[in-house]
Amino acid sequence: METQHPMTYGRITGWGGYVPPNVVTNRDLPEWLDTSDEWIVQRTGIRERRIAGPEETTATMCLAAARRALAQADLDPQELDLILVATSTPDYHTPPVSSLVQSRLGASRAAAFTLVNGCTGWVYGLCTAYQFIHTGIYRKVLVVGAELLSRFVDWQDRSMCVLFGDAAGAVVVEATPEPCGLQGFVLGSDGDLSDLIIMPGCGSAHPCSPEVLARRDQYVRMNGREVFKFATRIIGPICHQAAARAGLELDAIDWIIPHQANLRIIQAAARQMGLPLERFVVNIDRYANTSAATIPLAFAEALDRGQAHPTQRFLFVTFGAGITWGAAVVQPWPTSGAASQEAVAQADGRVPTG
Is 259 a catalytic residue? Predict the structure, then answer.
């Protein structure tokens, strides 16, 4: 007779974020750029962003966020089975930044790989982590989203450089028999729109050359108008799809954490879904668009400051390069049982995001 194995769920036992200490406000930018605070705020909702210092890299930001998440989970790095890093701005083309993080953490047992999905990367990574947990292959997984975009945008292009900042966010997911974790998700891609967000040069199609550098094709380019139109069309439908796959209506979701690309996109999504903006976690005014880091950073901040509690339901929704998109309904902790009691006690010793 075939043995029936109990379902394995995934509890988010730790979270952490990191932002560089260097703050660049909109009022700082006109010193070298033809722009203004009013112009940026009206079009994006951004007031300031964090810019990495010369000694910082994507790997160092990943490490800072990962260490906070591991401390929150009270987990030794050597206990990790897998490390997933979502980024499009790695330290090097190769080796992968995930291996640098694995080495510097001292996570000697862990496998590691990098997902390159632009702003959508961390949600893809989180859904991937849960698949490893659900199948029983791995029990302790670290998922990091990080971007150091300030070195990949053209600071002479005012339509692009004002939009982005540098940051990292991370969570630890651990196997548990108690129901919680990923409840429903949807992921998608439309490569026909891939040229809407692109770094044209320094890849295999157009290797680095004097001509590529003269055209400044080593920097990210974006058709902002078309991306805006796409985002406002996609967010509402995929939120409904993810909730439906979880067997829920949107009213059952406590918090929606959207990709922090543009406040106007978030406001349009709220109107489209008939939800008050107060149910959305928003921090774009302070950090700008940090790509793969936006959702884990906002999630960690919301928990650390007590705005949200991990027994609540969250809907993470994002869009980005590819063009790709994703939405996931997650209840980080179970609402009852021993694991929940332990988690509530653990929350008394939270590690601030910083």
Answer: yes
Please list, residue by residue across 134-172, b when 16 or more beta carbons sit within 10 angstroms of its beta carbon and e when fewer do. eeeebbbbbbbbbbbbbebbeeebbebbbbbbbbbbbbb
Cα separation, 66 vs 103, in Å, equals 13
Per-residue model confidence as pLDDT tens digits over 100-109: 999 999 999 9
Q: 119 an active-site residue?
A: yes
CATH T-level fold of 9-178: Peroxisomal Thiolase; Chain A, domain 1 (3.40.47)
CA distances from 323 to 189, 223, 234, 274 (A): 6, 12, 11, 26
Spot the catalytic one: 26, 117, 119, 127: 119
Domain ranges for the chain:
9-178, 182-347
pTM: 0.91
289 labelled catalytic: yes
List pLDDT tens digits, range 113-140.
999 999 999 999 999 999 999 999 999 9
In CATH, the number for domain 182-347 is 3.40.47.10
- Of 26, 161, 239, 259, the catalytic one is 259
